[in-house]
Design goal:
Structural class: mainly alpha
Distance between the termini: 40 Å
Oligomer: single chain
Strand content: under 5%
Shape: globular
């Protein structure tokens, strides 16, 4: 899971004899030697760390928690040691561009930096491991009975449940999973901030924003500008969906004006709304005539068949099949006999070709798409595996998330025909295009504000502008400000609703997912142009196009060896992240939504 392994905190190890400790001023040659030593040490360390963390994620016990905490503490110490050493070389005259880039990666590539205070790395990783474990073991309730995390996610999208049941699930999950984490989370923030300051950053959030080949403050402005460009589309979608929920549930449950109740949107975090598409589908044209989950079931397809279908897509682009170890070592199903982390993830265990996914697959449309997404990580990991260790990553973290997402955009009706899931006679006609676009927007567009606010909240937590006493208040305020949603009821003073989202206790930076939503459409439009597609953009599938595959693989092979604008340009011809391709994709829908919303109040 190189995209996530890089978030494991990397490395102090055997003391490296680095010229930085000598009396003479360090030279460019000294910096080169330092980088070579570090890359060898981290390569070896991350293999062991990946193996231990894999066992911990797939066998959640107190013992594996302790093992993961120990190995990750070593990684944190390594990462801090090497980051501090790298800072000593950053201004040395005569550095090659390659060495300078690697020094910058070492300095900014830590997610949770521990200070050099004795015991700090161990304490930090004990807390971080425990928070992830708490999440993995989390339970909510439905009708008063306990229900697991993966099952509760499915039930939140089950439209046969009532608003009362949705409220019960939402509230119980946030109370039982989030609230107990709050004190430990606050303590972890303090330790990580002390580590970030030792590295020369104002706080951990500023350090996170420094890894995008631009100043941190510029990066924050770029992401806010992209959001502002896309906000009119989101506002139109919000207005339309709110009116449909009001029609379904009435004023007492969902008023005609104001925010939307968070538990009514088909997802525990209201981050994607696709599960409630049947409630908002346009009359006469909204029924697409098929559901991928139903198609899979009708064909007798199981979880492994779904993974094979994902592999087949990448193979159709000319990429080599997945290694046999992938099929032997991945976790595809939730075991009946033990606790595991079901949250889907992709892993690169040996920095070569021991690539895996970890999921608890259910036969439904969401998991079919997720598989294509996770495999995108794996094919990216394998493409850049010949790069030096410090370049074993995406051009930026948004790239890693965008690859599988843009491939999943090609899961069009024609693609489903091509792989034998959908009868050609049942391909939706052109008059269904608004339905197709609305179904996509319910996930892709609805996600944008959530993708932005998670780290906006964390940046405030890290810089101290959001204090522990206000954690939940500010989380709710940001959810309302950006998403226009509110909890189903009053939240208690000790609530910690942010902790009920995996990426908060999992300490996974989240802006990458926002960037991925934008980048995937840039990648997709470029691929469709390369494939010579002439029809509506949203109908394009580049399945089977080896020219696209070759150009894509050339970008993937670059890994993190060049600034992300170089990688973006290599595939799309552009050096700027922009929402224009996404706006183009959804332009017909925006026009339709504006007509539907005429005379209705927008905003909240």
């Amino acid at each position: 899971m190189k995209a996530m392994i890089s978030t494991l905190s990397l490395a102090l190890s055997l003391v490296v004899a680095t010229p930085a400790l000598a009396q003479a001023a360090p030279t460019a040659a000294d910096a080169d030697a330092f980088i070579a030593s570090v890359e060898k040490d981290l390569f070896d360390y991350t293999v062991e760390a990946s193996q231990v963390n894999w066992v911990n994620s797939t066998y959640l016990t107190e013992d594996t928690d302790a093992m993961a905490s120990r190995i990750n503490a070593v990684g944190t110490e390594k990462s801090v040691k090497y980051a501090l050493e790298a800072a000593k070389y950053k201004d040395v005259a005569g550095l090659s561009a390659d060495t300078k880039r690697k020094l910058d990666i070492l300095r900014t590539g830590i997610v949770l930096p521990a200070p050099t205070t004795p015991g700090a790395a161990t304490e930090l990783n004990t807390i971080a491991t425990d928070l992830q474990s708490q999440y993995g073991k989390g339970r909510g309730t439905l009708n008063g009975k306990e229900i697991s995390g993966s099952d509760i996610e499915a039930e939140m999208g089950n439209l046969s449940n009532t608003p009362t049941q949705f409220a019960e699930m939402w509230t119980s999950w946030h109370d039982k999973v989030g609230a107990p984490m709050k004190d430990d989370y606050a303590k972890m923030v303090g330790i990580a901030n002390a580590g970030a300051k030792e590295l020369g950053f104002a706080d951990t959030g500023a350090m996170w924003r420094s890894g995008y080949d631009m100043p941190p403050e510029e990066f924050a402005k770029v992401t806010e500008q992209i959001w502002n460009d896309m906000k009119p589309l989101y506002m139109a979608l919000h207005t339309y969906v709110r009116s449909k929920l009001n029609e379904k549930y009435g004023d007492a449950v969902q008023p005609k004006t104001g925010p939307i109740r968070a538990d009514l949107l088909g997802n525990m975090w209201a981050q994607e709304w696709g599960n409630i598409y049947p409630l908002v589908a346009p009359a006469g044209t909204g029924d697409l005539g098929y559901d991928i989950g139903d198609l899979l079931t009708a064909k007798g397809k199981g979880p492994l068949d779904m993974v094979k279908a994902g592999e087949n897509f990448y193979s159709s682009l000319g990429m080599a099949p997945l290694p046999e170890t992938f099929w032997k070592r991945s976790q595809f199903l939730k075991p009946a006999d033990r606790e595991v982390v079901c949250h889907a993830s992709a892993w690169d265990v040996d920095n070569k070709d021991d690539i895996r996914i970890k999921m608890c697959i259910k036969v439904n449309a969401d998991d079919f798409i997720t598989i294509h997404h996770e495999l995108g990580h794996n094919y990216y990991q394998r493409a850049y595996n010949k790069q030096p260790f410090l370049y074993l990553n995406g051009a930026n973290d948004g790239f890693h998330e965008a690859i599988g997402d843009f491939v999943a955009l090609s899961i069009t009706p024609q693609y489903l025909v091509d792989i034998g899931l959908l009868d050609k006679a049942k391909v939706p006609s052109a008059d269904k295009d608004i339905g197709l676009l609305l179904r996509q927007a319910m996930d892709k567009v609805a996600f944008l504000p959530f993708g932005l606010l998670v780290d906006r909240w964390r940046w405030g937590v890290f810089d101290g502008s959001i204090q522990p006493a206000d954690y939940n208040k500010k989380w709710t305020e940001l959810r309302t400000q950006y998403q226009g949603i509110v909890p189903p009821g009053e939240r208690p003073a000790n609530a910690f609703d942010a902790g009920a989202k995996f990426h908060i206790p999992g300490n996974t930076p989240y802006t990458r997912y926002f960037l991925a939503r934008v980048l995937q459409f840039q990648f997709y439009r470029a691929a469709c142009k390369q494939a010579g597609w002439k029809g509506p953009l949203h109908r394009c599938s580049f399945y089977g196009n080896k020219e696209v595959g070759a150009k894509l693989n050339a970008m993937l092979e670059m890994g993190a060896s060049k600034p992300w604008p170089d990688a973006l340009q290599a595939f799309t011809g552009s050096r700027e992240m922009s929402g224009k391709a996404m706006a183009d994709y959804f332009a017909p829908l925006k026009k339709w939504l504006d007509a539907q919303n005429k005379g209705k109040p927008q905003g909240w």
